Amino acid sequence: MLRRSLPLVVLVVFAFVLRVVGLDFGLPWAEARPDEQTIAYQAMKFGRGDLNPHSFNYPSLFKYVVFVLFGADFAVGRAIGRFAGQEDFLRAFFAADPEFRLLMRAWSAVAGTVGVALLARAPGRLWGVFFLAVSFLHVRDSHFGVTDITMVTLTTAGVLLAVRLQRTGTVRTALWAGLVCGLATSTKYNAALLAVPLVAAAATARGPLSTWVPPVARARLGASALAAMGVGFVLGTPYALLDFGQFVGDFRYEMTHLAEGHHIDVGVGWAHHAAATLPDALGWPLYVVGIGAVGMSWFSNFRLSLVLFSFPIVYFVAIGRGHTAFYRYMLPVLPFLCIAAGAFFEAVEARFGRVFAWVVGALVAAPSFGRALEADRLFAGEDTREAMAAWIHAEVPTDAVIVHAGAYTGAPMLQRNVPNQTREYAAKAGRADAGGFRKPDELKWYEADRPMYDVQLVEKAGVDYASVRSLASLESDPPPWLLVESSGLRFYSAVPAEVQALADTRYDLVHEEVGTADTSRPTYDQQDAFYMPTDGFVGVSRMGPNLRLYRLRDAR
Prior knowledge:
This protein is an alpha/beta fold. It has 2 domains: 2-23 and 112-379, no CATH class; 384-414 and 451-555, no CATH class. It is 56% helix and 6% strand. Strand 2 (415-416), helix 21 and strand 3 form a beta-alpha-beta unit. The radius of gyration is 25 Å and the shape is globular.
């Protein structure tokens, strides 16, 4: 028994290692991974006693999970004397203590590893586990303390339970399958499409020993599964009913956002995901094998494919209809392509032998595995924003005004001063992403041993920054310090020509941090403000944009 399970254990441990290397990347900087801070602040807000998130851009299950993680951290910290009370705990949180973000990321790393292990229960077994273990996009996003990987793991579990429902035809299995699918939907709304495999499983279910199930019994199975799915969703997001108006408004916003696009046009999602996202996520060889194997499965076992592969197909069609096409949107498809590819290589192994199959399988997985290793290299290394912040701390006076040309997420990891924070939160008043929770204005909540700066952003169309400087104000009243970013992210790192001309004529370059030798070579998820390539890692030595800091000549 142990000998048979050893390969699975080795693969799962290997998958876990890939997902925890460099897990502390960018910390304690709040924007190292966009959206982590939003979730963390909303989760911390529950500590006030109000469990209504007052924001439904995400469902609330993951926020509650993070709240429980934070609560456990407080309880343990209080018991061992790390926190004297709530004020110490909040001070650590506002000071961006890495442990809070690490807890969120560790949850995702574990959830991602569990998702890999689940494929041992699917067709393809060890092969599917192997392919998902080394999937670049799955490895990358398992480092992030956000909703996606938890949703993917729950989605995988839900579909596999639907397959069991089809095989056993029991109400108990229908209830479990529906409940897990509901929890997945309560993590991200797009998992609602899991209703399709649930209905398919109930409609094609067979009883023990493949006995025939009457239509009335099948209808009962489907109704039980869908009812349990609704219960699972409400358990994780109860205020979708209790604060129905806010829920509907935020949900409509997300649907509109999906259709309209995000800052930069990458084309319709179907084409972008098929030609860019999935090839980068898996590598072209594994992607092609997975797609081909899914197609073949419909001819070799239509009944099983109706349950196992209906979700990724319907999901791709639904999500791809819009112009918002983040790479992470394709994460739920990856396990099923890996399952299909795994089943194909299981057949290859049976016909041509283990050695031949694993040699070819390793070659097929090599591009994705190579990208995963490159991602871990960058996660574990220094960030240009971290290095620039260290230089500024040493050389630039505290409370200095620094104007950054680029994106908020591309700015160095600096502690912003009280006026800066006040402007930022005032601008977010009433907005869903603020969540009603903010860092107080009192200095006691700031780190006294760290310099503070008034970081302002050059205005950028389509982005609502609070601490913003217009081009006209830059030219009429140039700041003492000007920071210019550049990267392969065409929208986020776009800098007006007037700003660069001002830097060349009125300023001296005093320091530079370079992470990418040639910013035109790497491929990026252009809609995501995350400064790691998805392909073309050669010449990328560090995460983060290239940063150039200029000092006004008259300010010497």
